[in-house]
Write a structure and sequence with these properties.
Oligomer: homotetramer
Helix content of chain A: 40-55%
CATH superfamily of the largest domain in chain A: Type I PLP-dependent aspartate aminotransferase-like (Major domain)
Shape of chain A: globular
CATH architecture of the largest domain in chain A: 3-Layer(aba) Sandwich
Largest interface: A-B, 56 and 56 residues
CATH topology of the largest domain in chain A: Aspartate Aminotransferase, domain 2
Structural class of chain A: alpha/beta
Distance between the termini of chain A: 13 Å
Number of strands of chain A: 11
Strand order of the largest sheet of chain A: 1-7-6-5-4-2-3
CATH class of the largest domain in chain A: Alpha Beta
Chain lengths: 348, 348, 348, 348
């Protein structure tokens, strides 16, 4: 019962087959100067229905930090919600790479409400002493498992742009969000106002496939330099590009995402029927948040269920745990099996 | 005829099999908190005959830049030879990650002579205005294909340490050096005075396997934080550790290196017999440097031989090209075949 | 009626006389290697009743940023209250110099309550992904004009140290705080748990005299390198040291601070009697915060009173402005005259 | 006999008078938002016969490092001669602030010869792995006391610009150079191709007056942010601007420079007549380089003459010291007296 994180899983068979083929192929130029890499940029451009720049990197941390860096001057200030991965989990990498300051704003369940965001931006001081506000970063599906609809992104992107901010999307689980929304990649990103995104394949069924996608291809050269200087230009680059190709091929990525989401829905249903455990809110992709006591959780974990506790520091009062409850996160993946769900149901 | 670089090749079958197995295995904790990673540290400690800290990263650039960062204060100054990869090829990454200044010193064929190094260090200004001299970085096999013997390392390490410098070894082709020397990993590193090394598996037959190896395990936590902040902590970490394990297993790595070196020796012999092409110096591992005219090189390249030109800016007068000659580098790898050598011989 | 900021004023006559004398004196070694600078360190050590390291810099921003840098690893996280000067007004300098991340916590009127701080620190995530929590920074007198008593500092410093944090004090207006407290410099700093402080003379009557004071003199060399690399080692260093000497001489600094504080008390009394203007809270040093309408403020400003509005974003509900009110800050200085207070009283 | 450096001296009387007046004046807005600062920009624009942006800072290190930062992307590479102040004396500040790499090239007596520079630039590798070459920095008068003529600057600036480099001038002793050349400030800078300069007043008779001068005023905002983030925006800004104004007023700065240069010429004549001491080359401004034995120097120093030894590491063979000789630098200043020269002559 592996519900700790979707990056605990291995990789899908088509992805592994592509790695194997890439590893066995004849020598090709290193550092991304190969045909597979060029082909990938065309593939992404087709996927997003416009010319994009795609720069694979090794980790989501690098994708986020370098995306931000591409959009902010070193004296900038990047706005993100206070529990975002960018602001909490990346050991200062966004600040380090960009030189910019992070401004953490509250947002109920990690999603800015446009009028509230506008009010808070208006309240933030401006000018020389405060840095040049430069980027709004959002995550979808976000750190509370919730998906931003294209309309929701459009609304906050409009607020951001009125304030002079570029928009970054942390899409570590982009496939799961897309599978949930049923819209096109273009609708979920640049058509809604996203300028640069972190495009994640690792959690969705690859071994290591993350990329910076810039919807303005004029950013390509800048990001290429930033990536090299960051030690993120992998020499046998086809290791990453082959994974992306196989993952995207024939809608494989969305199939895997739909599976993970469906497993999450089943798991949520199982939990919803249980006593002493309650869903914090309805899951929208492949992450489920539940309230239960530490003792209850410990028993489940002792019986072989892997999952983590989660911070309640930024929860709105109406979302807060009741007495004796703690918040826990359960994540499903492309590799989650019905057997795992059933075993968990049996435990409950 | 792929002699452009050893990072053009794919990966060896045992390494690919290990990646496949890792990708198919049951979920394990992410970010290196898995058994395979723990086992790898034991493996490296056995290999080096002492407890070491091993921190895998995605690229050689990251391994070099973070190794340096582990050894220098941000106000430090890192000494390296003027044509070292660190000083030339990494787009400022060593300076960016460490904050330190690079001091490039000349060294015949990239190898410092101890007395000359001592003289130059004595000449460099010291004190507040000049930064705190902190690290000497050497490369073996180096940028001219030459291998430092344990005695040679010991001699310059003694000079470095007398000056207060820690010693870093860029071991992107460490296996090829070891295969050439026939000594133990310990003799080629810490026993000779190396403090931290960049341990490269990618060029030697992996798809992507680089690591920082610190011979003082007390550096582990510091490097772990630096690595995370650098976006170099790969989430499905076993992708790298599995490759290292398979590569090191049963001496596979040295076997691959011996093959690459033997192919280089054959290629050198072929070249030595040719008119209008001459070896710049005797190769010691898997890189061959030759002088020939641009026209001669262009004809070989047009016929399908891949290789690059190389800078002569730092060559000693006695190593300099003759009129009409340019310098070229040819690299063999674990994947180089006899057929490639024979085809090249036929061309010549 | 100059109540905009205490850095609008010039300098006191003894300070100016010292600058003149320093400028006329015979040549002395540059970069702080002169007798005056050495003497100053003795002077500060006497002042603080222990050996301290004193490193003058040009600005309060530099003093804060370098103080932090001296106390945190580059992968660290610095805790400060959300409206602190460090977190709001320094254009990212603390992050830039230190490499660390800022964690902004709420604190009523900018002063952490120990149990609340402990609770929040416990709530913050720990470990590799979150950076190494390293410093607590407080300001006294703070951004709301309030002074931390030695007991208050002791209490939060104990919480900080139990959490592994060093303590930094932003003392841009340290003299005003000391004058209000009536305690010794030692009691207000290291005896209460402060490790490094920004010691400000500029606002208190100098032209430009800021310093980093480290209560552990072993930090001297590190800070010296950081300062030089920051471009903060002024060549004709006696410009700063002469000011500090004259300012500290014979208690001149505290006399100037007592004057500024007394002027603030008179101004507060004047305001307290006025209709339509109310003190937000009782002032403790030389900054007064008042609520009034924008129209009222505009009339005062049009009549020649200089003062600024202030953010209410972080005010507790019980401190919040009433309908139609805004928050305004008035600052007195060593140069504030009775005539200015009387003119303002007349306006009201 | 103070010949150690021109930053050992105090300040000229008009400059001190201006500081006194600024310190006594009524309160004015802080952080450069005052009339004096605005007036200064007009003054500089008149001086340079075009609109310029002028941003005062506290040190020459800051002026150099921030000038470079204004002209390079963080992944850039800055070319300077190997013994330049930028490359040797600033504790890594240029790399720290800009993020860029320094490329140190040899240049006889610190002055690039255009064809040689072009050849070396052509030799340096280009592209992603090597950083984006961005700036050429020159110093005039330079680290060997030599002045670049407008024609010499034009010639290397043409080479630089053909290579895509912007041109920075380190003008720590700009006044001395101008006094020597007899040309206009415009001719010595932007008319010859300089884009941004470090404009130094401290060594020339101020206490602390350095500025970044950008000949493209569109750089103003960028540099303003960089300066604030660097902790270089002095709050009582008029301290610096008042000095500059008095120094520039009525040609006072050039008068002081002419005095320093004349003293240097007299000192050189005295030295030229002495046995056992010889001029390394003819001085052109206020720095004199001489060869003599360490014993000879020690006797002079013991008798009260202050001067320093100097590195010979980068001297051309024809400039090298003879057996038993070392290189020494003697610097005169606005404050050097005839009596000092005569005393030194008597010693010799």
């Amino acid at each position: 019962m592996f519900f700790a994180s979707d990056n605990w899983a291995g990789a899908s068979e088509p992805v592994l087959a592509a790695v194997l083929a890439a590893g066995r192929a004849a020598p090709v130029p290193a550092y991304g100067a190969d045909d597979l890499t060029r082909r990938l940029e065309t593939r992404f451009s087709e996927l997003f229905e416009r010319e994009v720049a795609v720069l694979p990197v090794a980790t989501g941390t690098a994708a986020n930090a370098l995306s931000i860096t591409a959009l902010t001057p070193p004296w900038g200030a990047v706005v993100a919600h206070e529990e975002s991965h960018l602001a909490i989990d990346e050991c200062g990498a966004p600040e380090f790479f960009s030189g910019a300051r992070l401004l953490r704003l509250p947002a109920r369940r990690g999603k800015f409400e446009p009028a509230e965001l506008a009010r808070r931006l208006a309240e933030l001081p401006r000018g020389l002493h405060h840095g040049e506000r430069s980027v709004l970063s959002i995550t979808s599906p976000n750190e509370y498992g919730l998906v931003w609809s294209p309309d929701e992104i459009s609304a906050v992107a409009a607020v951001a742009k009125a304030d002079g901010l570029a928009v970054h999307l942390d899409g570590a689980r982009f496939a799961n969000g897309l599978a949930a929304l049923g819209c096109t990649p273009a609708e979920a990103t640049w058509k809604a106002g996203v300028d640069v995104m972190s495009f994640g394949g690792t959690k969705g069924g690859c071994l290591m496939a993350e990329a910076i996608v810039a919807f303005d291809p004029a950013l390509r050269e800048k990001i290429a330099y930033l990536r090299k200087r960051a030690g993120q230009l992998v020499s046998k680059h086809r290791l990453i590009t082959a994974q992306f190709e196989a993952w995207l091929d024939g809608g494989h990525w969305l199939e895997l995402a739909r599976h993970a989401n469906a497993m999450a829905a089943r798991l949520a249903a199982v939990i919803d029927r249980a006593a002493d455990v309650r869903l914090a809110w309805a899951p929208q992709a492949n992450e489920i948040f539940v309230f239960m006591s530490a003792e209850r959780a410990a028993r489940l974990q002792a019986a072989g269920a892997h999952f983590h506790d989660w911070s309640t520091a930024a929860l709105a009062p109406e979302d807060a745990p009741r007495d004796g409850e703690k918040l826990w996160r359960l994540v499903t993946s492309f590799a989650t099996t019905n057997a795992e769900i059933e075993a968990f149901a049996a435990l409950l």
